[in-house]
Amino acid sequence: MLEIRNLHLAAGEQVLLNGVSTRFEPGRVHAIIGPNGTGKSTLLRTVFGENKPAGGEVWFDGINQASCKGSTWRHLFGYMPQDSHIAADLSVLEVVLMGQMDRLGMRVSDSQLTQALQALDSVGLLHLAHRPIHAVSGGQRQLCLFAQVLLRNPRVMLLDEPVSALDLKHQMVLLEQARALTRERGWITIMVLHDLNLTAQFADIILALSGGRLLACGSPQKTLTPQADSGPL
Ligand SMILES: Nc1ncnc2c1ncn2[C@@H]1O[C@H](COP(=O)(O)OP(=O)(O)OP(=O)(O)O)[C@@H](O)[C@H]1O
């Protein structure tokens, strides 16, 4: 179980997170929704440990983030940021293997290589494994970063707008795979989505953020009401 308690974060005068508390359950897909600039990415980064909260706590299975070594904490996660810089001279396969950077020795083992190729195959990119990352499309790069997250076999998957560059077919491929692995392996998945139809289809729990506050949290039936549709979401 991942739990955030009364998280506060500010940048100068601007309040980014304002007393956010909730629990994230294993085996469930949680979607964070809300308008632009409302703190969704900030929340993911704070859970991952990239932002240090001004107040509040993040716990995973009895471990307090604040008293855990950063590298040990991050080991729990597969984090796919909204924008990520990738060194242009790496191949698609090397980018996927970078997901194992903290676990790779001097040499990539046969089993690591096999798993990386399987992860690429599962997102339909095996045929591009040896192509330089700068020579694939934006959508293919997004799928490659998702494969990188899968290779980590994380306890918690944090996906920030993971389908923003994908066509409809690949949106479904990625989200179906994320949901299946979350269920099968008991991962905790937290993703930021803007499309409310996809959110209703794939999320078990929806968290609606506005102005750094958690406005609503619950099943799609409970949170995606006509009132919410016309409100600040
Ligand atoms: N490092 C920072 N310093 C100052 N302000 C920041 C910083 N990072 C984010 N912000 C501000 O915090 C607010 C929340 O940003 P955040 O990226 O979390 O929003 P979001 O809900 O993910 O938005 P979007 O849907 O556009 O991706 C925004 O107003 C943004 O300008």
From TrEMBL:
Query: Can you give the residue ranges of the ABC transporter domain?
Result: 2-233
Molecular function (GO) terms listed?
Answer: ATP binding
Q: Which residues form a coiled coil?
A: none
Q: State the Pfam families in the record.
A: ABC_tran
Translocase listed as a keyword: yes
Per the record's keyword annotation, is Phosphoprotein included, yes or no?
no
Q: Which UniProt keywords apply?
A: ATP-binding, Cell membrane, Membrane, Nucleotide-binding, Translocase, Transport
Query: What does this protein do, in the record's words?
Result: Part of the ABC transporter complex HmuTUV involved in hemin import. Responsible for energy coupling to the transport system.
Protein name as annotated: ABC transporter ATP-binding protein
Lineage, opening ranks: Bacteria, Pseudomonadati, Pseudomonadota, Betaproteobacteria, Burkholderiales
